[in-house]
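Sanity check

After download, print the first record. It should look like this:
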Amino acid sequence: MSINKVVDKVTWQQVGHVTEPGRYMFRFGWLTIAPGDLAIWTQYPDTSFTLVRTSSPPLAADIEPDETPAAEKDEFHLGAFELHANDEVLREHAAA
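Expected structure tokens:
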């Protein structure tokens, strides 16, 4: 199974400051948050993570008319992250 990367990123604020690892439903699909992800967000609350798709949506032909759209069934986990904790420090040094 190949993993398709998604360009979208999420922050702790966007996922409602979840406090427990687990699988959560969001507008873009299901997101699995690992304990290590939460540890990073706890230490660096402004960090953004790349969403990584872990499964493909079903084919349109396989979806019944009364089913939830495929986009809501996508599965994601958190991938690479960008630390934003020192952005203010960098701006202060650049201005000096």
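If your output differs, re-run the checksum step. Summary of this record's structure: Confidence is low (pLDDT under 50) at residues 1-6.
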